[in-house]
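Retro notes (design track)

What went well: tokenization of the new backbones is finally stable.
What didn't: we kept losing track of which sequence belonged to which structure.
Fix going forward: every design gets posted as structure first, then sequence, in one message. First example under the new rule, 321 residues:
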């Protein structure tokens, strides 16, 4: 069932009331399959394990630590091995109606790294717009993790279709945020287990400035786009932001701004997140392998090796450092 959508026929249900009732039944069956009463007792999860990722032309590995706390808190930290002797730690936090992010480079990566987010017309967002966009993006990410690990905690999807493939059939449920963006979850009709999530997102561009030994040094070049539900590869479009002519010097702020303006507007990408290797932890079935594809190409796999159900989560974990 992993590649259910490769040859799928979607049969839409046309009666809204029946669709809503059917969604409630499917969600109950899925939650029962995942743990029933045990699942309802899960208020927090701590997950940790290695991942492998394609980022532009680079192959990267690292460790991802994810803490989820109902109803609306998430702390996501990843330590990425960039190249020999250098790494980057990226932290994303949702705390109710607030969110923040941070990046730290280690091991001599000069110039730092930036997330470039743009609005309509490719205009850069002002601080207020940037904060609103960050909250929406991380809330969407939390909801996806809630579907994957918490049985859709407090979410109320609607039934939209049945997906058919040689491997079997799956019910397709959908949740929408306040902006109308949707996430679909595919639930196996025979086992009632979640199979995958599908959604579209504009993935923020991550730009690397400089390289080993300081700004504009060897390796100083722009990284591929990343970020969103689970940061990963994208299209390596636009001019590089690191290094001047010939890569010898770091560009001026004016030059950086000019090159950003030359970048084409970001294009939404179709993302599929496959859920696999379910194992029982404290009476609850949890996926221990998440595989992400963008536009049909696999770009990331996260293998979860450590799980804590209802860990003692300190309140300051979600405070901006």
């Amino acid at each position: 069932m992993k590649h259910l959508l490769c040859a799928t026929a979607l049969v839409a249900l046309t009666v809204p009331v029946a669709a809503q009732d059917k969604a409630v039944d499917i969600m109950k069956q899925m939650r029962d399959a995942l743990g029933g009463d045990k699942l309802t007792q899960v208020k927090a999860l701590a997950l940790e394990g290695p991942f492998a990722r394609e980022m532009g032309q680079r192959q990267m590995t690292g460790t991802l630590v994810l803490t989820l706390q109902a109803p609306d808190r998430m702390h996501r930290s990843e330590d990425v091995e960039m190249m020999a002797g250098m790494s980057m730690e990226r932290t994303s936090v949702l705390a109710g109606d607030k969110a923040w992010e941070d990046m730290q480079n280690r091991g001599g990566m000069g110039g730092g790294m930036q997330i470039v987010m743009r609005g309509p017309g490719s205009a850069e967002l002002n601080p207020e717009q940037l904060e609103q966009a960050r909250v929406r993006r991380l809330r969407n990410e939390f909801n996806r993790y809630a579907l994957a690990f918490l049985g859709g905690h407090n979410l109320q999807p609607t039934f939209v279709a049945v997906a058919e493939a040689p491997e079997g059939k799956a019910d397709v449920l959908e949740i929408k945020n306040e902006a109308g963006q949707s996430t679909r979850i595919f639930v196996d009709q025979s086992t009632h287990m979640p199979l995958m999530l599908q959604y579209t997102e504009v993935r923020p561009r991550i730009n690397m400035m400089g390289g080993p030994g300081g700004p504009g040094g060897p390796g100083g070049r722009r990284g591929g786009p990343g970020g969103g539900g689970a940061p990963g590869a994208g299209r390596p479009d636009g001019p590089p932001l690191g290094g001047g002519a010939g890569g010898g010097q770091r560009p001026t702020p004016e030059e950086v701004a000019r090159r950003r303006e030359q970048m084409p507007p970001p294009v939404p990408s179709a993302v599929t997140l496959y859920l696999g290797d379910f194992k029982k932890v404290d009476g609850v079935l949890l996926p221990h392998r998440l595989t992400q594809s963008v536009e049909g190409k696999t770009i990331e796999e996260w293998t979860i090796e450590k799980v804590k159900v209802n860990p003692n989560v300190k309140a300051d974990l979600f405070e901006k450092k």
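Added context from the reviewer: Residues 8 and 164 are 5 Å apart (CA to CA).
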